[in-house]
Design a protein that fits this description.
alpha/beta, about 325 residues
C-alpha cells in the first residue's frame, strides 16, 4: 500500500460529564497533535441542536484553531449553505483567509446538518433550503470571493481573499455539482459507504477544469478508531455507536463513556445499524486497520484520506489518530 496524504475531521464531541468549552479545548489539542504528526488539514463540521457536538459555529472554532497552530490547513467539513446567506459565509471565511492566508479551506455542504425545525430557526424562511437552490447559492458565494455577479455588493473581507472552496457530499448529486463547477470534492464515506466508489467515479468522469483547478481532486472521509487490539477498538467505538443510535431515534445526547455505552442493551435494530455503520470503515488493531485502509484506498483511490475519530477520551483520540497514521503510512 502506497503512502496517502492524511487529514482529520473532528466533531468536537461533548462528553456526558464535560462542558462544551472542555470539548473545544480537546479539539484544539487534537489539531495541535495533528499538525505535529504531519496531517495535511484539520476540518470541523457544522451541526445544530445536538448536545454531543460543540462545532455549531465552524468559523469561530477555526479562528481559535488557526491562532493555536502554525502550519496545518484548517477548514469546514462543512459549512451547511442552506443555513446561511452566501454573503455572510464569504465575509466570515474571507476574514479567516485574510488573517491566515493560504491555510483556510471552505468546505460547503448541501444538507442543513440538523432537523427541519432547527433548520427553519437558523434561516427563518424556506428560500435556499431546497436542492434546486443550492447550485445558485454556491455560485453566488464563490462570486463574492471573485467579485463577479454580486449586484455590486462587495464582500469585505472576502473579495480577493478566497479560501480553497470544496464541495462536500454523500451522493451522486454533490459529485455532479462539484464536477460541473471544477471544485475539489470530499465524500462522506463515514455516512454513506455504499455510495463512495460510484460518486467518486462520477465526479472524476464529469470534471470540468475551472479557474482554480485543472484536474479533479478527492478526499474520502472515513471513521477511524485504532487501538492495540480489535476488542479495545470496539470498546472505544461503543460511545460512537450509541450516539448514532440515539440520533437516529431522535434523542441526541452527549457522548457516553465506554462503560456506559457497553451497558446499554440496544435493540436488534440498533445493533444491526451499528454493524452497518462499522462496515467499510477503519476500526480495530493496527493490523486490522491497515488491511481495511488498503481495501478502501484500492476501491476509491482518493487524493487524501480524512479520518474522523469519535472517541470519548481525548488522550485515546490522539493515540488512535497516531496509531491509524502509522498503520496506513508506516
Amino acid at each position: 500500500m502506497n503512502a496517502v496524504t492524511l487529514s482529520v475531521l473532528d466533531l468536537a464531541p461533548v462528553q456526558a460529564d464535560v462542558t462544551a468549552g472542555d470539548a473545544l479545548h480537546a479539539t484544539t489539542r487534537l489539531a495541535q497533535h495533528a499538525e505535529e504528526l504531519g496531517f495535511r488539514r484539520f476540518w470541523v463540521a457544522e451541526h445544530h441542536n445536538m448536545p454531543g457536538i460543540a462545532s455549531a459555529a465552524p468559523a469561530v472554532v477555526l479562528a481559535h484553531l488557526a491562532a493555536s497552530t502554525t502550519r496545518i490547513r484548517l477548514g469546514s467539513g462543512g459549512v451547511m449553505l442552506p443555513n446561511h446567506a452566501p454573503l455572510v459565509v464569504a465575509e466570515q471565511f474571507g476574514t479567516l483567509e485574510s488573517l491566515h492566508p493560504g491555510r483556510i479551506d471552505l468546505g460547503i455542504g448541501r444538507a442543513p446538518g440538523t432537523d427541519p425545525v432547527t433548520a427553519r430557526a437558523l434561516r427563518r424562511h424556506a428560500d435556499g433550503l431546497g436542492a434546486e437552490s443550492f447550485p445558485r447559492e454556491l455560485t453566488t458565494l464563490i462570486g463574492f470571493f471573485r467579485g463577479t455577479d454580486t449586484d455590486g455588493i462587495v464582500a469585505s473581507p472576502g473579495r480577493g481573499a478566497e479560501p480553497e472552496v470544496w464541495l462536500l457530499g454523500s451522493s451522486g448529486y454533490s459529485a455532479q455539482v462539484a464536477a460541473a463547477l471544477g471544485l475539489p470534492f470530499a465524500f462522506a464515506h463515514h455516512i454513506a459507504p455504499d455510495n463512495t466508489a460510484a460518486a467518486v467515479d462520477l465526479y472524476r468522469d464529469n470534471f470540468r477544469p475551472s479557474e482554480t483547478r485543472n484536474e479533479p481532486y478527492t478526499i474520502v472521509a472515513a471513521s477511524a478508531i485504532c487501538a492495540d487490539t480489535d476488542d479495545e477498538a470496539d470498546r472505544l467505538a461503543a460511545p460512537r455507536d450509541l450516539a448514532f443510535a440515539n440520533l437516529r431515534s431522535g434523542r441526541p445526547q452527549a457522548l457516553a463513556t465506554p462503560d456506559q455505552a457497553a451497558g446499554f442493551p440496544g435493540s436488534d435494530a440498533e445493533r444491526h445499524f451499528a454493524a452497518q455503520r462499522k462496515a467499510g470503515q477503519l476500526q480495530g488493531s493496527p493490523e486490522t486497520v491497515r488491511a481495511q485502509a488498503a481495501q478502501l484506498l484500492d476501491a476509491t483511490s482518493p487524493d487524501e484520506l480524512m479520518l474522523n475519530t469519535l472517541v470519548y477520551d481525548i488522550d485515546a483520540r490522539i493515540r488512535s489518530l497516531d496509531l491509524t497514521r502509522k498503520a496506513i503510512n508506516g
